[in-house]
Design a protein that fits this description.
The chain is α+β, with helices and mostly antiparallel strands and 110 residues long. 33% of the residues lie in helices and 21% in strands. It has four helices and four strands; from the N terminus they run ααβαβαββ.
Amino acid sequence: GYFSVPQKQVEETLHYHGVDATLIQGSFEQTLPKCTDMIAFLHLDCDLGKSYQIALNALYQKVVLGGVVVFDEYDSPKWEDVKPVVDDFMKKVGKENALVKWNDKAYFIK
């Protein structure tokens, strides 16, 4: 993509800043269901509604109570299919009134 960076460069940058992270290459469908860690802060920047749906279905139950979930393109005119997917998911989990919106982004506390 436009912001493509070699994985080795990302790993070196993370290491330089003292970040202990494991990068897993693959599609959301292949990689996200394998996540076993609990999540305190989940920043989703998926661009496409379908990708948000996959990410939320795979990761929401791993977000701890009091954890924060951020939707990067929530109300972006460029990614119009994101808002309906997020809104449907929020309704499904009983959090439809929990979204805090700013600019084209949104977040909620679980």
